[in-house]
Amino acid sequence: MKPVSENELDDLLNILEKHEQELKAFEGVHYVDVGYKFKDGNPIDDILSIRAHVLEKKKLDELDPSQVIPPRIEEILTDVIQSNPEIPFLSKEAANNLKETATNWLVSNKLFDPLRGGIAVWNPRYAFPGTLGMIVFDARTSEPLGLSNHHVFVREQGKQGDPIKQGNINMDPPEPDAVTVVGTLIRSDEGLDCAVCTFNNTRKISKEILRYSQKPTGVRRPLLGMHVTKSGIASGVTYGTIDGVGLRGFTVIPDPARPSPNGEISMGGDSGSVWLDVASFKAVGLHFAGERDPSPRAERAWANQMVKVAKALDIVFG
Question: Which residues form a coiled coil (predicted)?
Answer without folding.
Answer: 2-29
